[in-house]
Amino acid sequence: xxxxxxxxxxxxxxxxxxxxxxxxxxxxxxxxxxxxxxxxxxxxxxxxxxxxxxxxxxxxxxxxxxxxxxxxxxxxxxxxxxxxxxxx
Length: 88
Prior knowledge:
78% helix, elongated
């Protein structure tokens, strides 16, 4: 059953977009974690978008986006600490 995007409430429409952006940024942040500045920024943006979407409607996509972004941020922080500890 497909839902017509025009029939959705604008707030729900933007929440779905934020949830999708959160999931995409979380996935990209996992790959960008090897560059701590990029991984950190993308993870934080994913967490913000996921949280905005989660406030409006608690969807699975928003929760996946939040989880992926949190994991990306964790990997970024651990990798940054690893780089700092073994710096010559």
